[in-house]
Amino acid sequence: MAFSEIWLACLEQAWKAYCQGSVPVGAVWVDAEGHVRLRGRNRIHESLAEPPHLAGNRLAHAEMNVLVQVPPDDYFSMATGILYSTLEPCPLCMGAIVMSGVRQVYYGARDREAGATALLQATPYVARKQIQAIGPEPEIQSVSLVLLTDRLLRLDSPRTPAFIQAFQADDPLAVALAQVWYREDYLQRAARQQWPVQQVIEGIVKAI
């Protein structure tokens, strides 16, 4: 299965996050000509990041790490491009999107637990921005949820069951595969062997 260059760039960032022990979410901003200009990944479990990226705290989400790269004077130009994310933006990231100038968002996987695209109509101020949020993308969703489910099982936080239940509602096959691979350490071995993201994607698509 061939994914677009843009979605491959997002998934590459998600895979890098997974390999670094963070939550595997990746995002990019694409300009009006369709070129990937800004890249970011979740870094909440990483201690260091090159400025201006965020790391080591719960604000270090993928979309945030794209948007913190935007100079203040570029606010209006952000509306000419598109923000892509492997996962539906959460309330934190949706707020940043609203304030960043971005007016179109594509997301790969739905997040019934923490996704916040519904907030785009929550207040008159936000609704006037007329931000479009488009998703999910079924193929991207499957890859994204395999990575996310495996990582959440490893983190074993009190919120892990709720997230996995939410993911199951949209892609039970991806969650089931991730649970098997979690027990087999499949993705952990792939990370240690430094598989390129395309190899990881092909493994997931073939297994599902």
Instruction: Please state roughly what percent of the residues sit in beta strands, choosing from under 5%, 5-15%, 15-25%, 25-35%, 35-45% or over 45%.
Output: 5-15%
List the uncertain runs: none
SS field, number of helical segments: 9
Mean pLDDT figure = 97
* Helix and strand composition category: alpha/beta
| Shape verdict | globular
Quick one: how many beta strands? 5
Topology as a string of helices (H) and strands (E): HEEHEHEHEHHHHH
Helices and strands in order:
Layout: H1 5-19, E1 26-30, E2 36-41, H2 62-67, E3 82-87, H3 91-100, E4 104-109, H4 124-128, E5 132-134, H5 138-155, H6 160-170, H7 172-184, H8 186-192, H9 197-207
Parallel strand pairs: 3-4, 4-5
Antiparallel strand pairs: 1-2, 1-3
